[in-house]
Amino acid sequence: MTQAEQVPHRDDRAWPRGAGPISLVVGLAVTAFGVAVTASSAQAFTSALCLLAGLLIGSSLIVVGMQRWLSGKGIPAGLGITSAAVAVAAWIFFRVTGMTGGGGALFAGLVGGLLFANVWAIQAARANRRR
């Protein structure tokens, strides 16, 4: 028996019931908020880039971490540090530009990306239940 076969796969029972639909609805609401912040911003291009960067960073952090976690391994500490660093950058942008600037869009994108990827993670974990 190899080491990979000895590690138990985790499944969707780690999330509370209804976590998928709630993550999707809140993710859509937060992303819509980010789009509204971007549309009302005086620096719309910068805000749009911040929203996109937040969505990409947030979703990629969850996807990488969840793939490892679902296969029975630990989540690397660097992912948490990266997530915290992006949140701090969003806060700094927020303080510098105000809610209508890049900070609000970056933070909304980060949270939206995390929540959308959480929906994916729950679906991927559901497949592990059948193993």
Structure description:
There is one protein chain. Helices cover 78% and strands 0% of the residues. It is mainly α and 131 residues long. α3 packs parallel to α5. The mean pLDDT is 81.
Compute the CA-based radius of gyration.
Answer: 17 Å
> What characteristic shape results from the CA principal axes?
elongated
Overall pLDDT, averaged? 81
Helical/strand content category? mainly alpha
- Sheet with the most strands, sense and barrel status: none
Quick gist of this model?
This protein has helices at residues 3-6, 19-40, 44-70, 77-97, 102-129. It is mainly alpha-helical. The longest helix has 28 residues, at 102-129.
Q: Topology of this protein?
A:
Elements: H1 3-6, H2 19-40, H3 44-70, H4 77-97, H5 102-129
Keywords:
mainly alpha, 131 residues
